[in-house]
Amino acid sequence: MIVVCAWCQAEGRPSFVAEREPYQDQTLTHTACPQHREALYEELKRLDEGSDAA
Ligand SMILES: [Zn+2]
């Protein structure tokens, strides 16, 4: 299984994250890379804090 970051892929950036067993199976599986996981976490945190924007 080829693990790719769905967000990197959407942005057209290199999206490869890791390879997982079974290695002969080249099926793509999606996750968030560490950078995007962090970005998503920050985004959720920001949304959670409510509206201090504008
Ligand atoms: Zn990513």
Question: Could you explain how this protein is built, in words?
Answer:
The chain has 54 residues and is of the alpha+beta class. The protein has one domain (2-48). It is 37% helix and 22% strand. It has 2 helices and 3 strands. It has helices at residues 6-10, 34-48; strands at residues 2-5, 16-19, 28-31. Strands 2-1-3 form a 3-stranded mixed sheet. The longest helix has 15 residues, at 34-48. It is elongated. The N and C termini lie far apart (44 Å). The chain binds zinc ion.
Helix percentage: 25-40%
Order of helices and strands: EHEEH
Biggest sheet: strands, sense, closure?
Answer: 3 strands, mixed
Shape estimate: elongated
Which stretches are poorly predicted, pLDDT < 50 over at least 5 residues?
Answer: none
End-to-end CA span: 44 Å
The ligands bound in this entry are:
zinc ion
Number of domains: 1
The proportion of strand residues reads 15-25%
Arrangement of strands in the largest sheet: 2-1-3
Mean pLDDT: 93
According to DSSP, the number of beta strands is 3
* Gyration radius from CA atoms, angstroms: 15 Å
Per DSSP, the total helix count is 2
What structural category characterises the helix and strand content?
alpha+beta
